[in-house]
Task: structure prediction
Amino acid sequence: MKSVLLGSFILLHTMLYAQSTGLRLRAVGIDVFKNLPLMASFPQMGVMTGQERIQYSNPLMLETYFQFSTRQPHHFNHIGVGYAQLNEQIASRLTQNSEGYFIKMGHEQHAKNHPLKSHAFWGYNLTLTYLKVKSQLSIKSQHFPHYQQSLPDESGLGAYLEMNAGYAFLVFGRLETRIVARTGLALSKVGNPNSSYLPGAGMRLWRNTLSPVGGITVQFFYLKQSASDKI
Result:
C-alpha cells in the first residue's frame, strides 16, 4: 500500500510539473503482452534453472503509461506505474509467491522523417520496484509424514535500467499500437533463492543479484492528439 501511495504521489507531481513547464499529455497507454507468454506457456512447460525445474502459475501484470510531449520536437517523457504477481514452484518442494509494485520513468525519441500514421522510436527507462516474496517448503515422503512449513516473508527494493526500440502505428482513430524490444540489467535480491521474476522488468536470465533482463512486448496507446496534429 505504501508503494502505491508513493507511486501515486510521484505520478501526481510529474503531471503538475508537466503543466508548469508547458509539457502536454500526448498519450495514455497500457502494456498488454507481458502477461500472455506466462499464461499460455509457463504453466504447462515450466523452465529450467541450473538443475531445478521451475513451474509458474497465476500470473498477473498490470502496467499503465502516461506520455508527455516536450519543448523539443520528436522527444517525449513518460512515466508508468504497475503491479505484478506470480507463483513459482521450484523442484516440487518450494513454492514462492512474488508480489510487487513498480514505477517506471523514461525518455523516448521518435524518428523525424516518418509517415503520420507510423514511426520508429528508441529510448531508455529506469524502473524502481518493491517486491514481497512469501515462501512455503513442502516435502512429501513415502515413509514419513508429509512436511510443510511456511518460511519468513522477505521484501526489498530493486532497480532496472533498460534500453528499448520499436515501431508504432495507428490501427484506427487515435489508437496506436507499439511493438517494443527491450534489454537491460536488473538489480535486486529478494527471496531464497532470489525471485526469478522482477515486477516491471520481467523474467531474469540468472538468479544472481545483477541479471540481464529483456524481451519483446506490445503496448496500446490512446493519443490525446490526432496523428495529423503537430507534436
Summary: Confidence is low (pLDDT under 50) at residues 43-49.
